[in-house]
Each structure stands twice: as structure tokens, then as C-alpha cells.
């Protein structure tokens, strides 16, 4: 792996010239022409009456996949441009254009789903048995079944068109709100204005004065933006609720569960096991408060470091460590990570104007990925980097699959990313040079459990209750903050001294329109990945191939069927989830033992 690594990514290999790229414009025009051609084909398509007439739809299926892959390509490019520079007006225009194209494409897809819906079961079985079509059976059947539960194709197409300036438009408006936020920060160099992303990184500063000061300024900034954020959140939820009502869907979780290809029974089994494990986390948080010299932790102390790690970790060192730790599990994963670093797929520079947070996005046409984050040298940053590389590795394993089969749900996406993160964090703990460093790294691992079991549980509780309240009318900023604190108190078992009322405003995930309920899939992924890691420890080197095979099937199975096929496990039962929790509780017990003499 080359050193030193670039702190900025390389996008010109995708489309040279950014948002004004002539190659991009040519690509977009060709895509628009193909979408128009696809619209004509689908408009004239009729449900096949025998296996021979299904062949007339081969061209439609092929073009649907081609357009879908290219839409992801340009959408990912627009996301990258907007994230690296929130003031890039060309990126904003590109994103709007792509959103409009996607709405048109989704409308066409909806119309084609109606053709699938009208196909008789007998012809369907013969159609899916054709060798050319058989690999797409799961995705096509899923589309057919879902079409039977939606509105008419005409109404679904209209809803998609209205979503461009309505539903998705409000999500874009939230990005504008975030880009305007500037938070003052004082250090030895004087006062500087930080973007939301830069300020967020200060919330887990080792210095309690820094993080407490920033937390209050953070709350003040989001209090000022609260009314605009409340408007945005209400309109996003209102659009969803109206759409669900039109489809006859009463359960707010029907859509996110369907998108994540999992059942309510599986979700309930997981949350039940988590709830039963929370006393161990409460004990950990109480011990942590004592270690920090506090009667109880405030919200901003939850992720504060205990003990001392080896200081700031240079980016090049973090990359080297991640590759080394990946190699212990899978040489294939390590080689892929080296490729990502060497080819400048990763943007980590700490500078103003960047979007907060981190993400990985795939380019199916180029068969590449790009990773975005702001790296400031913390162990948390290293975990984020490993996490996003896990996403990229997942996409890489699906590069040669049909485009339809590359679309996997968020919960299994978070499984791949969190598994990579667990590999790194576990290796860091085992390789610690002294007890103090080991304690710091072990505590970072446990912090992840708190995030997935408590923080994300709070988000899930908040969003569930918000949607129920939104059915009755608009929910103002003060009410949203009350719901947020109520959910945080329940999820954290009342163990904190101070909560984060405006978390609902500051958290991007509540405003993402690609996937509703952008919360519980994270916890599913964390628990699933931890359970997989437990099996990896038991089975040794042979598990790497099994892991790859499981990921390669993530686009063509429900979560329950995926796990049953590859692991022989029933996820609607508590056993697998309990096994994952046992590993987490073991970490907590080790932490408590190591700190017994320190309080």
C-alpha cells in the first residue's frame, strides 16, 4: 500500500470535471434517451399469456437493469460532489436532475410491476423457470407481490412525480438548513466558525470542558434551526402517511420492514433480547460516570473516552492497521481495502464546507466505491473508516451479479460494515500495548453497544411515536423535543443526568428519504454482525468463505431465509440474538473487572 495516502478522493475517473463534466452530460443525455425508450416499451407491454410471449419482455428487463445501474452511478456522483462541498451549486442542480430522472424511472418500474402483477401464476412459474430469467426470480417476484399491495400504476407514478419537489424536496431543504449552520469554537488560535460536521467531531473530545461547551453551543444552534427542521420533518412524515393511506397500509412499520426484507417477529425477537440485556449496559454507564468523577453521565459524556489511547492516530497508520486486521480474517478483504486506499477512493480531509457524517456509495458501472468522512485521528474515526470499507467490500462482492441482484437492504448492508468494524475494534483491544490503552479500546467497543442498543433504540421509539402523533396533525418543535427526551429516557433506562432535546433536528437520518425508519436496521446489522463474528471465532479461517457467500446472497433473499440457508438459524427465535448479546456482555464484564480498583 502506498504511503503517504491522499486525504481527498479522486472523482475524475468517474466523470472528469465535476458537475460541469462534458462526459457526465453525455452520460446523462444517453440515460435520459434510454429511459424514454424504456417508457415506450413498458407502455406497450402486456402481461404474457404463455412462456413464449414472456420473451418479448426480455428487452424491457435488460433495459430496466441498465438504466437502474446508471442512475445509481450518477446519483452517487452527485452525492459525492455535494458532500465534499456544500456550496457547490452545480452539484445541487445535478442532484435535482437525477432525482427527477429517478422519479420517472421509478414510475416506469411501477408500470412494469403492473405487467408482472397481471401475469397468471401458471405463466409466472414457467417464466421464472427460463434459464435467462431464473437468477432474477426473487427480485421480480418481490416486485410483483408488492405491486399487488399498492395503488394503481397511474397513482403510484403520480406520487413518484410529486415526490420530487415534495418528499425528496424537503429532504434537500434539510441539507440547506445544515449547510447554513455555523458554530463558534475557541481554542489557542482564537475563535473560529465550525461547520456542523466539524462541530460534531468536538462532541467526543477527551477534554470534558471542550465537549460540554460544544454541546451547549450545539443545542443552541439547533434550537435556532428547530422551527425550520420541524416544518421539514412534518412534511416528510405527512407525505409518507398520505401515501400509505392511499395504499391501504395502516402499520407505519410495514414499509420499512418490507424494504429491509424482514418480519416483525424477527424485529421483536431482537428488541426483546436487547431490552433484557440493558441492565448490564446501565451498570457500565454507572461505572463510567464514577471513572469520570461524575454522579451521572450527561448525554455528551456517553461517548467520552475512559482511559488513554495512544493519542491521535495518523491517517496512514489507521489505514495500515485496518488492512493488517482485515488480513487476519480474510486476505481477500485486506487486498480490497488496499485497492481502495491506493486508488484514492476515500475522502477524509478535515476542512470547512463538508457535509457532516460519513457514508460509502457505490458506482456499479465503474465497479468502484467512494467513502466520505472527516478524519481527525480518533479511535472512533478509525472505526468509521473500517465501517465504510465494510460497505465497499460488500458492493465489491456483488460487482458481477445482475444489477437487480445488487440491491440489498439496509440491515444486511449494516451487517457487512459493522462486521468490518468489529474485526478492527476486537483486534485493537487484543493488540493493546498496556492496560490503560486496552481499557480505552475496550470501552470504545462497548460504546458501540450503547449506540445500537440505546441511542438507536431511542430514535426508533421517537420515530414510531412521532408518526402516530403526526396522524393527528402537525407536531411543533417543542413537542418533538419532548418526544425525543421521553424516548431517550426510556432507551437509556433513565441513567443519564442530561439529554439531547434537539437530537431530532441535528440527526440527518430522520430526514433521509431513500429508506423510512433509518434506525432499527443499524441495530439489526450490529446484532447480526456480532452474531456472525461469534461464529467466526468458533469456526476459524474457514468462516471467511462462508461470510462472502452469505453477502453475495443478500440481494436475493429475505433476512430470515438468508440466515437459515447459510447458518441454519431461525431469527424469529431469541437464540442467535442472545449469542450476539453474550459477546457484548462479556466485554462489559471485562471492563467492570478492569476498573474495579479505579473507583
Characterization of the model:
With 599 residues, the chain is mainly alpha-helical. The protein has a domain at 18-165: Oligopeptidase f, N-terminal domain (Butyryl-CoA Dehydrogenase, subunit A, domain 3, Up-down Bundle). The protein contains 23 helices and 5 strands. The protein has helices at 22-43, 58-84, 89-118, 121-129, 137-147, 153-165, 167-179, 196-201, 208-224, 226-247, 254-259, 264-291, 315-329, 331-342, 379-397, 410-430, 435-470, 477-491, 503-506, 520-539, 543-552, 559-567, 575-595; strands spanning 183-187, 190-194, 346-347, 359-363, 368-372. The strands form 2 sheets. A 3-stranded mixed β-sheet has the order 3-5-4, with helices on both faces. Helix 16 packs antiparallel against helix 17 (435-470) and helix 17 crosses helix 23. The longest helix has 36 residues, at 435-470. The two termini are 44 Å apart. The mean pLDDT is 95.
